[in-house]
Amino acid sequence: MDFIEELTWRGMLHTAMPGTEDMLKEGMATAYLGIDPTADSLHIGHLVGVMMLKHFQRSGHKPLALIGGATGMIGDPSMKSQERKLIDETTLRHNQEAIKAQLAKFLDFDSDAPNAAELVNNYDWMREFSFLEFIRDIGKHITVNYMMAKDSVKKRLSGESREGMSFTEFSYQLLQGYDFLHLYRTKGCRLQMGGSDQWGNMTTGSELIRRIEGATDAFALTCPLITKADGGKFGKTESGNVWLDPKRTSPYKFYQFWLNVSDDDAEKYIKIFTELTREEVADLVAQQAADPAQRPLQKRLAKEITSMVHSEAEWQAAVEASQILFSNKAADALRHIDEQTLLDLFEGVPTFEVSLDDINGETRLADLLTEKAPVFPSKAEMRKMVQGGGFSINKEKVSDPQATASASMLLNGRYIIAQKGKKNYYLLIAK
Q1: What pTM does this model have?
Q2: Helices 296-309 and 251-259 meet at what angle, rounded to 10?
Q3: DSSP secondary structure letter of residue 84
Q4: Going by DSSP bridges, is the β-strand pair 240-241/236-237 parallel, antiparallel, or unpaired?
Q5: Where are the beta strands (DSSP E) in 255-390?
Q6: Strands of 219-223's sheet, edge to edge?
């Protein structure tokens, strides 16, 4: 597989230094991509870079995932208006291990193949580097004029922030440049990859290698920053980032994010975030054009990325959970979904707290749902809806107006879902 060609048709190539493609055609190459370690999980904003590494390895090359431990302790000023919070070493190491576990779902770290992926951390080679050594051996090779000319620096200095830019942040591009020099020397790494907002920092690395090593075979390649068709920021929801860690973003919510993207975005994202071939994508695009209501692009995108990040079983569970709201035969599925998925599924519906003592097999539902939890304004209205077949508990029709609330109704030991008509749901939490 030709790496440049693969990125190009997938819409994942923004800029590449002249000579990059020729270098990659010489044989197995080594490339690295930096990952911010300020959280113990990646979010979907990281996935474009991760997929670049994945395609790089699939093309027969060797990927290096660089955890920016040292640079993460400083903060990258690129396209940001404020300095980022710093992290300590204990947090850094914890985050590193968590991130590697997630990367292992995309990259082969463990095989004996010559292009097996490696995880490196720039803190490991920066922590023993004294300030005097750094400015003597590295800093003298890059002028302040060169650094000031970078867009990331110019935008920060000319921005609205009154804080300006600290020397710590100003030095960031020099530290990132040294990463490339170090990996060039120790790993034979000749390519740095990243987002287009990193171009200035990345070319500093190639320039440092040219000035110190006298070498012109160090290259940089970027992918475009991903946006939504409506111009909104990719990967952001009302509740914040969409994380890969199931404790931060449940598999159900993760699946729903991809399932609900627009048609235009689905056509773009399925090329970027899956391994589907050009022919498979073209077939799905044709299916979408023929019958947009079936949303084959979104469904396949959600399946591929949820299965890759979580598992096929989690994808299947998310599909089944999604169908609960629209199925009259979902009572059994409702009893088998986990608590977090249940809460995600009914997020935003009216919620009432009731006493566990009232779920005793003696309290009538009519009393519970009018006096304890005002699902109905009156018992007469509830009786009328029950008699008309329009009321359900946990997706099971209630036919007896005198029915009682029993412990057998509790989902995950504490929840009851009441449903009026087809679309009006209420969540009761027994405490």
Answers
A1: 0.86
A2: 150
A3: P
A4: antiparallel
A5: 351-354
A6: 15-16, 219-223, 191-195, 30-35, 62-67, 118-121
Neighbours of 426 (CB within 10 A): 19
Beta strand 424-430 with 351-354 is parallel
Average pLDDT taken over every residue of the chain: 91
| Cα gap 200→177, rounded to integer Å | 10
pLDDT at 80 over 60: no
User: What is the mean pLDDT of the segment spanning 157-169?
Assistant: 71
Q: Is 187 a residue whose pLDDT tops 90?
A: yes
Residue matched to tokens 């599924």 = 345
Concatenating the DSSP letter of every residue in 13-40 gives --EE-TTHHHHHTTS--EEEEEE--SSS
CB 34 within 8 A of CB 194: yes
* DSSP string for residues in 206-269: HHHHHHHH-----EEEEEPPPB-TTSPBTTEETTEE-BSSTTTS-HHHHHHHHHTS-HHHHHHH
Amino acid letter, residue 193: M
Number of Cβ within a 10 Å radius of residue 238: 4
Q: Residue 122 corresponds to which tokens in the numbers above?
A: 């720039």
Please give the residue that has the higher pLDDT: either 1 or 327.
Answer: 1
Report, as residue numbers or ranges, the catalytic residues.
38, 43, 46, 80, 84, 176, 197, 233, 236-237
| CA separation for the pair 114, 416 (Å, rounded) | 55
Dihedral Cα 55, 274, 248, 103, nearest 10 deg: -20
User: Is residue 103 over pLDDT 50?
Assistant: yes
